[in-house]
Batch of 3 targets.
Target 1
Amino acid sequence: MFKNYLKITLRHLSKNPAYSFINLAGLAIGITCAILILLYVQDELSFDKFHRNAPRIYRLTETQLSPDRGERHFASTMGPVGPALVADFPEITQSVRMRSRTGMGRMAIRRGEQRFYVADHLVTEPSFFEIFDFKLVYGDPQSALREPFSVVLTESAAQKYFGGENPMGQTLATDRYDLKVTGVVQNPPRNSHLDFSLLLSFATLEANRGWKQFLASWDSDNFITYVLTERELAGFNAKLPAFVQKHRAANAESPRRIALQPLAEIHFGSAHLEADLNRGKGEITYVYIFALLALFILLIACINYTNLATACALKRAKEVGMRKVVGAKRSQLVGQFLGEALLLSVLALLLSLVLAELALPFFNALAEKTLSLQMSANTPLVLGLGLLLFFAGLLAGGYPAFYLSQLQPATMFKRASQTGARLRQALVITQFALAIMMIIATAAAYRQIDFIRRKNLGFNQNQLVVIDINHGNTRRNFQTIKNEIAKLPAVKSVAVSSRVPGEWKNLDQILVTPEGAAAHEALTMFFMCIDQEFLQTFDVQLVAGRNLSEEMGADTAAVIVNEAAARALGWQDPLGKEIRAPENNYRARLAGVVKDFHFQSLHERIAPLVLGHWNNPVANIDYFTARVQGSALPQTLAALQKIHEQFDQTTPFEYNFLDERLEDFYRADIRLGKIFGLSAVLTLAIAGLGLLGLAAFTAEQRTKEIGVRKVLGASIANIIFLLSKDFAKLVMIATLIASPFAYFALQRWLQNFAYRIDLALWMFVLAGGMALLLALLTVSAQAIKAALANPVEALRYE
């Protein structure tokens, strides 16, 4: 019987090649998208699952109360917390502490004549290898990180520094000490939130008396701490306030709360955390969006099949009637039609596997992943594809199977023409509503990104080269280096600062107490130290007072604030007023006020900012910034490198173009816009394919009517209008349905931006117009063909 069903299915597909191609192409595109999204979702949901003890690993997070900004949440906490938790609670068996680049700064390494920057190093304890499953290739996990000045390299780092040599026992030089290689660890998997190339022993910190005291202080911060428990803990966080109070009783005026964050929640649950050590924080919203887009595209492809299957019901009416007359049961007919849908789904799946393999490089670039389609090593993917195949076959063929099988021979013509038509109309509306939502989302996303790129940031970000200061000798001789840079023909101006607008590392913050205010009225403000060329180089506008001056010795105790800070301080005339930052032993008087400029991304509102003199107790200068002009950029960069190497033979020359770093703030948003755009194209393409099939069917069904109308004098334009108007109505209804859903979804997305566009009516009109144009072009092609046909042949049509 199966063989007979297969013959009938193949015969039906071959007799209707156009409809078969439309169904196959639509399903293949839909399943390809689903495969790629399945790989993406699987990768996102697998973060940190490779650790055997993953359910029992927790990270300590900390909450601090800021007088003016409310609660602030950190992924780092006090130095002694981990060991104290192990000592106080039997359910916590081990702890491990880390310091990262955020807390230690970057490290320059020398190997012979070669120099390298290391920005992804961790300083950690021997228990690191007991809690986490990072496997050592060489070395003993018990002792590799026990001695001071020990370092464990990843396999890629060992290859980078030593090539084919055995690195064990060899040394790497830094500007402070030499490090002995005591182990080589496998590269961290891509689905690990911890990313590193070097692991330094915690004993290296403890060898320094100052670090050892800081580590033992309950006022310390910036230590990433993980604990391993005997079992999964529930309600344990309720015990922690008393624990902190016990150990920090003397520091009750500055309350700090800690909590345990499960390892499984770190990837998606860290967006609110500062000082986070986390490779590519995940957004569960994007996972949902990806999954919904895949479902939408697959649904549209399945709708095509359902539409065309019900449209062809009349052609198969005789077959159904004959089968029923000779005794076929309804279950057999259902099996026949479902089998056809499943067979087509199998063919589409095979084609989609080829398409997915071809599309993976593009998709990886879009999603910033390294996904691969390795079926043999990915059992969940195979199971997922099996479910996907069943789902696609059932969704595409379910309604046609049950609909066609219940037709009665005496009434099949009437019911097929009525019930099927209503269903087809509903499905076409659904298809185009989804497509229109994608077009509206694409237009909004691209307009928001364009708004970001065009918005006046309050400074000129173009043609700025930012050069890192990474060595003490460079800081000591910065004025001489500035003078050398300023002599270059292409350099218009050059400044030094601790941070730059659009900072890609971290911005310093201080607690500022205004003159005449009490300590508890302190305000949190961002802080940068600058020199007198900063405003000119960045083209920042001074609106009151004066610039800092190198000629005035007292300017080391002068500051400039932005308008947001002036408003927060509450002074009508802030010039000459004093501000204090007791925690930093810093006092200064306001010399000037600058116009607000965006020193963070447009996701954030402009916050209060203090610009202090470069010689201050809060922060050191960290960058030269040169405004360059002309086309000889490679020669200018070579000259800048030469100047760098005259004063710093330890660290490599490192530079960034500021406008490129500003783009990094919006990479996720740009990616989302591209995803929406691609989804819109795919949904329109699949919907257009389905509409092409329906238009051909409609033209064929109304062949005699068209012939009669032509004999009675109808023009080609009349025939085109006749066949197009019904589809145009459906697209217009789809636009009305899609618009409110798209509006509310986009309003929610735009809330992520402090500065954003308003959703304009033209976006919705454009989306509906594009869908309508596609529908009219698709239908018109079939309508013209029908209108040009010989009416005599049309009247002979049966």
Target 2
Amino acid sequence: MFTGHFGVALAAKKAAPRSSLGTLILAAQFIDLLWPIFLLPGLEHVRIAPGITKVSPFDFYDYPISHSLLMVVVWSVVLGGLYYAFRRYTRGAWIIALAVLSHWVLDFIVHRPDLPLWPRGPRVGLGLWNSWPGSISVELLIFGAGLWAYLDFTRARDSVGGYAFWALMALLFFGWVSTLFAGPPPSVTAMAWGAMTMWLTVPWACWADAHREALTGSA
């Protein structure tokens, strides 16, 4: 899943108004942001296997640090705890932790049974990536609902709050669409470096969100 994770971050803004959208994106995408960091030095592994599912050409056969359920729970506690330590915003810390955990839940829906419950433990996944209509519908539904929730709660204070935000949304949406038709990457290394660019969405979202304001009182 790709846009669905960003949909969760967008929707979470209403639950934690004092948290930046950039921080919420960091949380919702956290384990995918960690994944290429572990891939590049060989701590985790993936194979490019066209046809393994109808939507994704990747065989995620070894990613226990970033994507096992046990470690995702650990990451959620760590990120939520660090956020509370720096911001002293209890609601935000809980939402950050839940956003991290939500990533595994959404991945469980689309992945084939390759998500370990704990390192070297049983693997699970409902396999929605084996259905083009199903997987795309779920992505669009979650992203669209999150975008609607964010727009229903915030408005641009100035032109940056409009242009920067919509440019980011366009990048995410059309970037996702392009991956659906681009075919497999030339190598795992190229794919990992490409995935590292997603870190740019965090400061970009912080910048855009700083130029927007809540339509109702902050909590």
Target 3
Amino acid sequence: MVISTAVERENLIEGGKRLAAVLAALRARVAPGVTAEELDALAEQMIRDGGDEPCFLGYTPEGARRPYPATLCVSINDEVVHGIPNESTKTLKEGDIVGLDLGLRHGGIVVDAAITVPVGKVSEESTKLIRATESALAAGIAAAKIGGRVGDISHAIQEEIERAGFTVIKELGGHGVGDHVHEKPFIANYGRAGMGEELVEGMVLALEPISTAGKAAVLLAPDGYTFRTKDGARSAHVEHTILLEAAGARIITA
């Protein structure tokens, strides 16, 4: 989406604040013994209590065989993205890392964000993986400038992840957002600077670095949604919705 009115901009910014508040509450709730279904229920309750709509619940992305059955994606350890929280019992354990991916619609505008959270005390490698992925998101945001190219973002993300000694998951990436959950352009987490679609003022993008401590290959689980690393290595995923403004990229979901 490209923001064209003051009302759209206000709704985008307010929606981002609301989503950030829900993710902060979920982060605080993460602990050994907590189930993915509990986190999903909390996310849906908070979104609906705010008068907003969960974007993932009932959403059928291109190529999917069925609608997504939950509000929140909960992906643990080697689950890369789109882990389903409410079709089997998934209980967090000490030392796990868990990705929480969430979207909501406020005033007709979709916002999307994700965090990866340690469960209790985690390994040094897991901590480094999360931090590297967060640093890659910051680098991608810094590279998102009016007049630049999508490839500038992709290149910045890839450099940061690989500099830290980790691997980019190439099949998955960021995207436009705003009118719908997924819009053009696709924003790969690897690539060449100066390539791809031009970045224009008012563009709303969801940047989402996805990395692994192992090899890049992934498998899609029989549930049709959960991607896992083929080698069982841990994966981290973080995401912000941003708005391209003359002063630079504004983080909407901070």
